[in-house]
């Protein structure tokens, strides 16, 4: 295992690894560990008691964070005609159809953070599913990115909509703000995200749903929360 740097070792002393923190205390502490020269993102990792190999135990969705993410996301919209005009008017960064598919295929272009598509365009988008999928960029109805309501989709993303999805290891990992937000705004975002994940609990999931909940800054140590209290 690589040896941690002196800065990391110093800030790690602020965190009691044996303690399970309350949400407010953890969010105050995570800001103290964000000592890098840039405004670090604050990240949430949740180990869920689900088996992602089963379709009925998938956990996936999206939520608009009350205070945004602190990052301006670049949105690509696959649409034609009036829906393309609607996307442009809503502030989408890139709007198009087959020509954008070709650009991604030939130039390996990924200058965007989120992809939205109207349902009639999914046949076109499907041609690049193999490259969008592994990057978590494939539009999906469950996350609201396959829709004819293009304006709402773009507005929500620009306002701070984030997607969450359980990975093969049963972990949901999402960035929900910046260290500069302060405790109150981070707590509002945290509560909105946790509420969405808890409500998304599959009926097929048995036993303890929240196995572990950890917050951390981009360059900081993990801070464990009391998962049981979050379920109460």
Description:
Helix 3 runs parallel beside helix 7. The protein has nine helices and nine strands. The protein has two domains: 125 residues, Ribulose 1,5 Bisphosphate Carboxylase/Oxygenase (2-Layer Sandwich), CATH 3.30.190.20; 84 residues, Rossmann fold (3-Layer(aba) Sandwich), CATH 3.40.50. It starts with 5 loop residues before the first helix and ends with a helix. The radius of gyration is 19 Å and the shape is globular. The mean pLDDT is 93. With 232 residues, it is α/β, with parallel strands linked by helices.
Keywords:
232 residues, alpha/beta, Ribulose 1,5 Bisphosphate Carboxylase/Oxygenase, Rossmann fold, four-stranded antiparallel sheet
Looking at the structure, what is the overall shape?
A: globular
Low-pLDDT residue intervals, each spanning 5 or more residues: none
Specify the oligomeric state.
Answer: single chain
> How much beta, percentage-wise?
15-25%
Tally of strands: 9
Identify the CATH class of the largest domain: Alpha Beta
Number of domains: 2
Class by alpha and beta content: alpha/beta
Please describe the biggest sheet, giving its number of strands, its sense, and whether it closes into a barrel: 4 strands, antiparallel
Q: Which helices and strands, and how do they pair?
A:
Elements: H1 6-12, H2 23-32, E1 41-48, E2 60-64, E3 75-78, H3 81-90, E4 94-96, H4 98-107, E5 114-117, H5 122-125, H6 129-132, H7 150-159, E6 161-165, E7 171-178, H8 183-199, E8 210-217, E9 223-225, H9 227-231
Parallel strand pairs: 3-4, 3-5
Antiparallel strand pairs: 1-7, 1-8, 2-6, 8-9
């Amino acid at each position: 295992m690589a040896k941690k740097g002196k800065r990391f070792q110093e800030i790690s002393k602020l965190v009691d690894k044996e303690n399970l923190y309350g949400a407010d205390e953890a969010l105050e502490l995570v800001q103290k560990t964000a000592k890098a020269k840039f405004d670090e993102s604050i990240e949430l990792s949740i180990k869920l008691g689900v088996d992602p190999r089963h379709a009925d135990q998938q956990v996936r969705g999206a939520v608009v964070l009350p205070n945004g993410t602190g990052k301006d996301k670049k949105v690509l919209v696959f649409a034609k005609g009036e829906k393309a005009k609607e996307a442009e008017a809503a502030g989408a960064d890139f709007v198009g159809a087959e020509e954008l598919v070709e650009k991604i295929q030939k130039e390996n272009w990924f200058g965007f953070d989120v992809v939205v598509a109207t349902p009639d365009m999914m046949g076109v988008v499907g041609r690049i599913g193999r490259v969008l999928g592994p990057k978590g960029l494939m539009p999906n109805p469950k996350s609201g990115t396959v829709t004819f309501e293009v304006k709402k989709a773009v507005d929500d993303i620009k306002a701070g909509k984030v997607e969450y999805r359980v990975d093969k290891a049963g972990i949901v990992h999402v960035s929900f703000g910046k260290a500069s937000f302060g405790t109150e705004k981070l707590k509002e975002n945290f509560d909105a995200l946790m509420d969405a994940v808890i409500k998304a609990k599959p009926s097929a999931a048995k036993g303890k749903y929240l196995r572990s909940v950890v917050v951390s800054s981009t360059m900081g140590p993990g801070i464990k929360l009391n998962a049981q209290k979050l379920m109460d």
